[in-house]
Specification:
Elements lengths: L1 E3 L10 E3 L6 H8 L9 H15 L3 H14 L1 H4 L4 E2 L9 H17 L16 H4 L7 H9 L2 H26 L4 H12 L2 H5 L4 H7 L2 H14 L3 H15 L3 H28 L14 H4 L9 H8 L2 H19 L1 H13 L8 H4 L29 E2 L2 E2 L11 H14 L4 H17 L5 H9 L13 H21 L4 H23 L5 E2 L1 H5 L3 H7 L6 E5 L1 H12 L6 H7 L25 H7 L8 E4 L9 E4 L1 H9 L2 E6 L2 E2 L4 E7 L8 E6 L6 E4 L1 E4 L3 H8 L9 E4 L18 E8 L2 E8 L3 E5 L7 E5 L2 E3 L2 E3 L3 E6 L2 E9 L2 H33 L1
């Protein structure tokens, strides 16, 4: 029932649907209720909150949205399958997001901080790299309680549920009716951005919070209370802790634009709209009012906000959102900041790198026909669009045909009458221009002058803001249409038709894009793992040509919607980081970005001068390679004992020790043993000092370099370079205990020398000799070495990063302040509600 209320406690011009949108005090004035007894205060608060939730009609939409997500992912929800979404050369799901979260689950199981993994890159600061989302609250809960694959399934499902629920909540907050909000929530939940990015768990985990961030910014503007800044800060912190800084950054960028536009609109309304220019009262209420939209041409709300210093409060509040979010997430931000300074993106990306894999103008047609250029899940995607190599999942902004056109329609009919429509119309246009990247000057302008933007690739991801904006506008379009249908029965039929069409369209678009496979089949140990597990020594593996063999499987299977048996067979090559699933250590890795020195030495960008590839087609399973001695020697220095590959390798340093054959055209999986492997732990009598990285690589690969006799350092050690007699064979060292955060070694030295541990050097590692801290030198470009004197010693390497410890203190203090603030606010609210 639509009711126009004239009450001193309400702002004039508000139109209410029942009592929705009122504060509790205002609703009491309308209902004439008296204050409750203090003895029943707690029970009263609970009942009023429940009554409010029921009144605004959240229960049914949330239940239906959750049910739709359950149906959409029914196999994963019923634990009958695990997601196996692929890529052209690897899978960010199977080779990055799932393995790292599996590591998180194991660390939680053993009560250990998930800071460092020895399984990739000869040792890697997996927490500092950030994509694992090691302190994201939902991840801690799920991976702490359930097996890895179950936790991962439900993390994905919860992300989709939350995206729809938060969208619905925001749409209702700005005044859209339940049906319009519900349709927008469905389209947002199953839009192309979320569906095609499912394999990027950290990305969709951060992105699903976007509508809730906008909700709290809106409450900050309309309510003028800084308590909403605390809630907004909690949301921003969750986005950062989710493990995707880019989407957290884009969300705050969008929220900042939202805030500034609303403030400018308020100022403009106050100073440029004269009282005589106000719309006169009509017998029939305007659509903008009958839909509870609070911001229109009626300026009294805006003037009241300005008069009550609301603009200043809003600006302070938005700054607090950023401060609180950064403070709470400092435990993640500081280690990541330290890591970035040593990584390939130190100082930011070049514009060419940032704008690579673009969104060509020709790709706009996919907003209507998402598979116009093919479907990568069926190996039909045409990657070359407009002369540029593109990625389907980075360019898919499909929201459904009907919601798209309803959004355009909503903007056309309301752009002159409603602030929100103008706001989201402009946001949709700007975000689409930014999505086009290098094809418009706007992105380059922002890239040059917006702090922080240089660290991110894929401006295509501004599609999130476009999808969100166009779907809010679609709510206005639906509202306009429904307001003009007076017959109740006809309105319900049309609403049902819209709902069915939107659901069928989006389910048809994306329901099969992310297939599942039996966890028992996918997680079973391949024959290669069983063979490698028989070797109880300490070693690493290297997966040779695995990107090319994945591409071969992708083509042979006709995409990941096709023959998953071939993808299962490919698991045996242990493509980084899938080796983490089986506890097998690799010298290679697959993160978003890695320390520069690791990229240099392990061949992340493979040095083709050291590998002769005799292969003419990516789809040819019969290729072979002849690695040169420099390549096998570098692998040996990294403690690589075995090479797994689908290629036939021809090298005097390699001997084939295992082969797994498969049915059909799948080539056999081969395992080669590297005869020039170097032990993980060495006692070396001599050191050479070479400060230049390129010179170190040349020296390491030189034929006269003996890693058993000499270690290459970058600074002069405390007792010189070569002051002792070579007593190599009399020196002994043994690893007593080896876990991710601590390595304990017993060493017996017959003379002064160096203990070289073939694990990655990184800030935060400390070495203790007989309980006393000693300096760790960079050895052989990427490893660790310490100087030891003659005698028996107990050596401990312990990982205690100062950046993490400082971040813990900052986040802990910030969390305590937030809890105190919320406790005080709750107490005050309880007293007010009890009156």
């Amino acid at each position: 029932m639509l009711v126009t209320v004239q009450c001193p406690s309400l702002k004039e011009g508000w139109t209410l649907n029942g009592c929705c949108g009122l504060t509790y005090k205002q609703s009491q004035l309308l209902s004439g209720r008296s204050s409750m007894s203090p003895l029943t205060e707690h029970k009263t608060i609970q009942s009023r909150i429940l009554k409010y939730v029921l009144k605004i009609g959240w229960i049914i939409p949330i239940a239906v949205l959750s049910g739709l997500v359950f149906i959409y992912f029914y196999k994963a929800a019923l634990l009958g399958g695990i997601f196996v979404t692929g890529d052209m050369t690897t899978s960010d799901l199977c080779s990055l997001n799932f393995p790292t979260r599996g590591f998180l689950g194991r660390c939680l199981q053993y009560g250990m901080w998930p800071l460092w993994t020895p399984d990739v890159y000869c040792g890697f600061p997996v927490f500092a790299e950030g994509e694992m989302g090691g302190l994201y609250p939902l991840s801690l809960l799920l991976f702490g309680l359930f097996p890895d694959w179950i936790a991962y399934n439900y993390l994905i499902i919860l992300n989709f549920m939350l995206s729809g629920i938060f969208f619905f909540a925001y749409a209702r907050t700005i005044g859209l009716n339940k049906f319009s909000s519900f349709i927008g929530a469905i389209a947002f939940t199953f839009c192309g951005f979320f569906v095609t990015h499912l394999k990027h768990a950290n990305l969709i985990t951060a992105s699903c919070w976007l509508p809730l961030l906008f909700l709290f910014v809106e409450k900050l503007l309309s309510d003028k209370r800084l308590i909403w800044a605390i809630f907004g800060g909690l949301v921003f912190a969750c986005q950062i802790l989710a493990g995707h800084f880019q989407m957290a950054y884009y969300s705050m960028l969008g929220a900042g634009f939202y805030l500034l536009f609303r403030i400018c609109s308020m100022v403009y309304t106050k100073y440029h709209i004269r009282p005589e220019a106000m719309p006169k009262k009509k017998k029939r209420q305007p659509v903008a009012q009958s839909s509870r939209l609070k911001t229109n041409l009626v300026s009294k709300d805006a003037c009241t906000t300005i008069r009550d210093n609301g603009i200043l409060n809003s600006l302070i509040g938005f700054a607090l959102i950023g401060i609180i979010g950064v403070g709470l997430a400092a435990v993640q931000i500081l280690p990541t900041y330290e890591f970035t300074g040593l990584a390939t993106r130190a100082g930011g990306l070049s514009f060419q790198d940032a704008a690579a894999w673009p969104y060509p103008i020709e790709n706009l047609i996919t907003l209507i026909f998402p598979y116009y250029y093919g479907d990568p899940a069926q190996a039909t995607y045409q990657r070359d669009i407009g002369g540029q190599m593109t990625l389907f999942w980075e360019n898919c902004g499909y929201v459904g045909i009907l919601p798209l056109f309803l959004g355009i329609f909503g903007f056309c009919v309301y752009c002159t009458r409603n602030t929100f429509v103008r706001l989201f119309g402009l946001m949709a246009a700007l975000s689409l221009l930014l999505t086009l990247g290098k094809y418009t000057p706007l992105f380059e302008l922002l890239w040059n002058y917006m702090p922080g933007l240089k660290f991110f690739r894929f401006p295509n991801r501004f599609l999130l803001l476009f999808d969100f904006s166009i779907l809010i506008l679609s709510g206005f379009g639906i509202t306009f249409l429904m307001e003009r249908i007076k017959t109740f029965r006809v309105k319900r039929v049309i609403q049902g038709g819209i709902c069915i069409l939107v659901i069928l369209d989006l389910f048809n678009f994306g329901m099969g894009h992310n297939p599942t496979i039996s966890p028992k089949t996918w997680l079973a140990s391949p024959e290669s793992v069983k063979f490698l597990k028989e070797d109880k020594s300490t070693y690493r593996i290297y997966s040779f040509g695995c990107d090319e063999s994945w591409s071969m499987v992708h083509a042979m299977s006709k995409g990941w919607k096709g023959n998953l048996r071939l993808y299962t067979a490919h698991r045996g090559v242990l493509q980084p980081n899938s080796n983490m699933d089986y506890g097998i250590q690799s010298s290679d890795g697959y993160p978003a970005f890695a320390p520069k020195r690791l990229v240099t030495i392990h061949g992340f960008y493979r040095n083709m001068d050291n590998i002769s590839l005799y292969k003419h087609s990516m789809d040819d399973p019969l290729g072979f390679a002849a690695p040169k001695p420099q390549f096998t020697k570098l692998l040996g220095i990294q403690n690589v004992k075995y090479i797994t590959t689908f290629w036939e390798l021809k090298s005097p340093d390699l001997i084939e020790v295992h082969q797994t054959r498969f049915k059909g055209d799948m080539p056999p999986l081969r395992i080669y043993e590297n005869k020039v492997v170097i032990p993980r732990l060495l006692c070396v009598p001599e050191a050479e000092v070479i400060p230049d990285e390129a010179a170190i690589i040349n020296r390491l690969t030189a034929t006269d370099f003996d890693p058993y006799a000499t270690v290459i350092l970058e600074k002069t050690p405390k007792f010189g370079i070569s002051t002792v007699e070579k007593t190599l064979h009399q020196n002994k060292a043994q690893i007593i205990d080896y876990n991710p955060l601590r390595v304990t070694i017993q060493a017996m030295m017959n003379g002064n020398g160096f203990l070289v541990l073939g694990d990655t050097w990184y800030p935060g590692w400390k070495a203790f000799v007989d309980g006393k801290e000693t300096e760790i030198y960079r050895a052989n470009l990427i490893f660790r070495a310490i100087a030891l004197t003659k005698g028996e010693h107990k050596v401990e390497f312990v990982y205690t990063p100062a950046s993490f410890n400082l971040g813990c203190w900052i986040s802990g203090i910030c969390l305590a302040l937030v809890v105190l603030s919320l406790t005080g606010w709750t107490a005050i609210l309880g007293k007010r509600l009890g009156r």
